[in-house]
């Protein structure tokens, strides 16, 4: 009998858990209805501000769930679309759920505000009082943009200087690129103050930029040193990169991969519309220049880059300028400059290995975003802020202009027109490659960041 009992003991343990091995019962907090509304309102307002300042839909969803759970409100179901956020909580046994919806009316990158929101969420996780959290959130939401309009315009013009430096342009070309980009930025700022839709601002900015570039060959008639060696393509290319700098390429790709189809569709449509505005502005500028007798000859080959040290210097300058006119603080500016060098190093390494420009751009974007995810965890800065600045030096502004110029100046030459469309297609492939590479780097970097966080927490427990 005892032998049979010993044989059946393992089977008995599989079928019936002993009271010693049973997990302890979890104590669920009791949250009254008014507190539920307060928690949902705080969480959704944080998510609303994050989405408006450039965060991805997945980050917004995770943040709302995390804030709600920190105050004992679980489960919370979140739905993020392109311009609205809905959060809902249903008590066990309650007749109706608590649901809150907020509309995201304006979206503009503000990376310093995004960094402060991340710090607030971390404080909430450490036990910050609900009332104090609401006060701090109100201060963050009402805070003005970090820099004034003058500094933003100078930063935008400096971005164009960075692009010109990467192509090894001379001092006169760099100066004209600064002036042209500054004129385009001022035009867009004035139109924004007049509440003109951004699509038309893109057209106007690209038009001004192209006309300034078309006038540069006239400098050859003067005694200004270097007037004969100005390349208008560099001036327009630098402006194209400037006007594509504020577009949410990485965010749109990340939302699409995360499964937020509606948000990704809205961002991709916005991206397409604003890019089309740049294209229309350049086409209008080229046609106007042609009527005025200032037509530009389409280049037969891609613009060559300058010496490698100038390439790295230009990439860092572009990243610094992007970080500044996106409202970043000193820490984000420095990290963005370093990551731009890392991304460009990956691009050069892939190019030297014989890969095409699109593939090399994707590898460079992957390197910058992968290192950026880890750096963002260590330095407590938003991932989207430093990733955007890191990949921007690889935006194919020169290819876009060369393709458009070939289409406009082709006339009856079908071969030149087809080459122009082919160049535009290559530029589109490079843009997709940048988005995919950056998104892949973020996804592969997140497990590494999580493991580093686990190691840091384990060391902290050991010290305590």
Q: What overall form do the CA principal axes indicate?
A: elongated
Q: Describe the sheet with the most strands.
A: 3 strands, antiparallel
Helix run count: 17
Oligomer: single chain
Structural features, described:
The longest helix is centred in the last third of the chain and has 50 residues, at 414-463. 70% of the residues lie in helices and 4% in strands. Strands 1-2-3 form a three-stranded antiparallel beta sheet, with helices on one face. The chain has 17 helices and three strands. Helix 8 packs antiparallel against helix 9 (232-244), helix 12 runs antiparallel to helix 15 and helix 13 packs antiparallel against helix 14. The radius of gyration is 27 Å and the shape is elongated. By secondary structure, it is mostly helical.
Summarize this structure briefly.
With 464 residues, the protein is mainly alpha-helical.
Fold blueprint:
Blueprint: H1 2-15, H2 33-52, H3 57-70, E1 76-80, E2 84-89, E3 98-103, H4 111-125, H5 130-142, H6 149-166, H7 171-193, H8 198-215, H9 232-244, H10 249-258, H11 261-291, H12 308-325, H13 330-352, H14 357-379, H15 383-391, H16 397-408, H17 414-463
Antiparallel strand pairs: 1-2, 2-3
Structure characteristics:
17 helices; 70% helix; mainly alpha; 3 strands; three-stranded antiparallel sheet; 464 residues
């Amino acid at each position: 009998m005892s032998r049979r009992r010993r044989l059946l003991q393992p089977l008995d343990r599989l079928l019936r858990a002993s009271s010693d091995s049973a997990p302890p019962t979890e104590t669920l907090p009791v949250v009254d209805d008014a507190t539920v509304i307060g928690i949902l309102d705080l969480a959704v307002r944080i998510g609303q501000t994050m989405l408006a300042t450039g965060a991805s839909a997945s980050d917004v969803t995770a943040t709302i769930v995390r804030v709600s759970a920190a105050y004992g409100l679980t489960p919370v179901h979140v739905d993020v679309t392109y311009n609205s956020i809905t959060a809902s909580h249903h008590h066990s046994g309650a007749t109706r759920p608590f649901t809150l919806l907020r509309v995201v009316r304006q979206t503009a990158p503000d990376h310093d505000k995004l960094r402060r929101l991340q710090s607030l969420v971390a404080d909430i996780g450490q036990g910050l009082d609900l009332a104090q959290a609401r006060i701090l959130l109100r201060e963050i939401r009402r805070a003005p943009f970090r820099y004034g309009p003058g500094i933003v315009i100078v930063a935008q013009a400096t971005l164009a200087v960075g692009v010109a430096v990467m192509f090894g342009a001379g001092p006169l070309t760099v100066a004209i690129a600064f002036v042209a980009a500054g004129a385009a930025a001022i035009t867009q700022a004035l139109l924004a103050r007049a509440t003109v839709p951004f699509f038309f601002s893109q057209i106007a900015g690209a038009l001004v930029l192209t006309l300034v570039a078309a006038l540069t060959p006239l400098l050859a008639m003067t005694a200004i040193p270097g007037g004969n060696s100005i390349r208008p393509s560099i001036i327009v290319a630098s402006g194209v990169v400037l006007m594509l700098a504020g577009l949410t390429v990485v965010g749109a790709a990340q939302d699409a991969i995360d499964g937020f189809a509606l948000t990704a569709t809205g961002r991709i449509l916005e991206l397409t519309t604003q890019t089309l505005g740049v294209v229309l502005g350049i086409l209008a500028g080229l046609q106007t220049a042609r009527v005025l007798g200032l037509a530009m000859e389409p280049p037969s080959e891609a613009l060559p880059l300058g010496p490698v040290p100038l390439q790295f210097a230009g990439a860092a300058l572009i990243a610094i300028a992007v970080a500044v006119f996106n409202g970043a603080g000193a820490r984000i500016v420095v990290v963005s400059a370093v990551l731009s060098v890392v991304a460009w190093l990956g691009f050069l390494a892939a190019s030297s290995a014989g890969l095409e420009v699109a593939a090399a751009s994707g590898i460079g974007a992957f390197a910058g975003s992968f290192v950026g995810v880890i750096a963002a965890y260590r330095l407590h800065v938003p991932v989207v802020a430093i990733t955007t600045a890191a990949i921007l030096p690889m935006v194919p502004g020169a290819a876009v202009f060369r393709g458009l110029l070939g289409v406009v100046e082709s006339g009856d030459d079908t071969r030149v027109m087809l080459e122009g469309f082919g160049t535009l297609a290559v530029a589109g492939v490079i843009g997709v490659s940048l988005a995919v590479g950056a998104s892949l780097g973020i996804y592969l970097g997140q497990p590494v960041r999580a493991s580093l966080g686990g190691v840091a927490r384990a060391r902290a427990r050991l010290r305590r």
